[in-house]
TrEMBL record:
It is found in: Bacterial flagellum. PANTHER family: FLAGELLAR HOOK-ASSOCIATED PROTEIN 3 (PTHR42792:SF1), FLAGELLIN (PTHR42792). Belongs to the bacterial flagellin family. Residues 216-298 form the Flagellin C-terminal domain. Keywords: Bacterial flagellum, Cell projection, Cilium, Flagellum. The gene is flgL. This is Flagellar hook-associated protein FlgL.
Amino acid sequence: MSTRVTQNMLNQNMLFNLSRTDQAMQKYQDQASSGKKINKPSDDPVTAGRAMYYRSSLNEIDQYKLNADDGISWLTTTDDALDEVNSVLQRVRELTVQGLNGTNDDSARTAIAEEISQLKEHLGEVANSQIAGKFIFAGTDVKNPPYRADENDPNSVKEFRNSNKEKLELQVGQNNSVQINIPGIDVFQQGGGLFSVLSNIVSNLKSGTLTSDSLGKLDGQIDNILTKRSEIGARMNRMELSQSRLENLEVSTTALLSKEEDADLSQVIINLKSEENVQRAALSIGARVIQPSLVDFLR
């Protein structure tokens, strides 16, 4: 049994088809104006999910890059401080060798001792080096200066009073963390303590009892500084490698995101023109399908 096609059915079908082409044209117009294949998750849930994953990955990469930049700055500041320590110790060594000269009188030894004493105070300032308000040689106790007077006796002599050896690490990858600090106790408290070695040299100079043993202890401090600088250099190399890897990862992830959500504008324009032609054809045919009414005859 055949179904009778009424004029009302023809009208409804024509309107439905026009609505479909309107929706398609709206879709391609949105893609052309935004440059994106999807403008809301419902456009393509699978593609939208992948795009969200890539965007989340890019956010993580941005944070890792910031961490790497901060780590490089911290390590550079630490290396500069250790370089200053090494320069001061080299000067102290020259003065110590000069002080070991038996021809020095009391006045000459006192002058040498005074210069070494001043250099010792300068090393105290270096020990309190900061970056962004944080003391770099204080372990995780970054808010308190490691070289300071006794808290219970503000008038006491300043000494290196920090024993915090905790690591400061920055994450520069999902499973990649790099230690950025050198605990001050490993720099200033090794081999009897750097400040103690200098204090003893000053005392022995003033008393005329300076021996080559003091020079050996001073050389041990210099060797320790060089060792710590080599550690800093290795960490900086690793951090720079992480930076390079993150930059490459950012480029590849951005390309994948673009592939998922960026529209091919040339193809979008072709599709839009195609839908426009379909709509014009539908309107033209619809004008013939719809039966004329009395109003048409009264024009």
